[in-house]
Design goal:
293 residues, alpha/beta, Rossmann fold, six-stranded parallel β-sheet, two-stranded parallel sheet, 10 helices, 40% helix, 16% strand, binds NADP nicotinamide-adenine-dinucleotide phosphate
């Protein structure tokens, strides 16, 4: 089996490149990565050339515009990569009878769905442009003839220049105390654990929408407290505040907890809790073994 990973130098992409080749269910599949330097996926001819050259059996489409606030002021660029490029990749998968796993986001929801969060078939209603552009990508994938999977994730952290736990760790070592938003709920996700969920889904091949996160919800404040505690600090150095105190160009959903019924129904092994995931990630940071060049 030949698996093509787009966005292979991004946070999730580079994790997939490391973990998929050793995922037991994939029996040593060939994993080929591409990023913007090899092919601009917003250019139809480059997508055509890429598929002709690689002829993949399955594609994991991670390439994206991921700057949520920047998407508000760069709408065309964000829509091009999240919407148009996904349409082009979906069409090429149809042509080559290749399966597609499209990585999407909790930000396709408006955050007003209640404390239990969203099931996979909940109605999309994004409240920021990034979410809208990713929802366009979902539309294109759902219309495919080839096998398709939409895999929504949230609050992703892992190898790469910046992510929330890493930023908290840096700020907590620089400042005596820190204000962190305590009125947004979501599910943190370690890229290593999501890569294993994707290994499971690709080897399974089922069609549909799946929610791939670590187990359990929290607020950003609770996540920051966990980081502080793992650093041996007094948790009271992390002070709760409201979203209104930290206005951002893009609105954030207040509660975008993702329920993972479809993944559980397939028998995907129980996902580690977010606390366990953050612990492993902070230990990795402490060991100095994590960063990519
Ligand atoms: N990060 C999160 O918290 C989060 C949460 C929910 C869902 N997701 C989704 O998860 C997926 C992976 O996220 P991530 O954080 O790993 O992303 P990332 O680190 O930003 O990586 C995205 C990659 O896509 C590449 N790319 C951008 N435009 C491209 C183009 N026109 N053609 C080809 N490649 C292009 C980027 O290259 P350059 O760096 O050279 O631009 C980058 O290597 C995305 O689909 C994202 O929407 C992420």
């Amino acid at each position: 089996m030949k698996i093509l990973v787009t966005g292979c130098r991004g946070m999730l992409g580079q994790t997939l490149m490391r973990r998929l080749p050793i995922y037991p269910g994939l029996n040593g599949a060939a994993v080929i990565g591409v990023d913007l330097a090899e092919a601009d996926l917003t250019e139809p001819s480059q997508v055509t050339d890429l598929f002709q050259r690689i002829q993949p059996d399955w594609v994991i489409h991670c390439a994206a515009w991921t700057d949520v606030d920047g998407a508000e002021s760069h709408r065309e660029a964000a829509m091009k990569i999240n919407g148009l490029a996904t349409e082009l990749v979906a069409a090429a998968c149809n042509q080559y009878n290749a399966g597609l796993s499209y990585i999407s986001t909790d930000y396709v929801f408006n955050g007003q769905g209640g404390a239990l969060g969203y099931s996979e078939d909940a109605v999309r209603d994004p409240i920021n442009f990034y979410g809208l552009s990713k929802a366009r990508g979902e539309d294109a994938v759902e219309a495919m003839q080839s096998p398709w999977q939409i895999v929504r994730t949230s609050w992703l952290f892992g190898h790469g220049p910046s992510n929330f736990p890493k930023t908290m760790r840096r700020l907590l070592s620089e400042k005596p105390c820190l204000k962190v938003v305590n009125d947004q709920w979501g599910c943190p996700t370690f890229a290593d654990d999501l890569a294993d969920v994707l290994g499971f889904l690709v080897s399974d091949g089922s069609r549909g929408i799946f929610h791939g996160t670590n187990f359990g919800p929290c607020t950003w404040h609770e996540l920051a407290i966990e980081v502080a505690t793992l650093m041996g600090l007094d948790p009271s150095v992390v002070v709760p505040c409201t979203t209104n105190e930290f206005p951002t160009p893009a609105l954030r959903p207040a509660c975008s907890i993702l329920q993972s019924h479809n993944l559980e129904a397939l028998g995907c092994e129980s996902r580690p809790s977010w606390q366990d995931a953050v612990k492993r990630y902070i230990e990795l940071l402490e060991s100095g073994k994590t960063e990519h060049p």
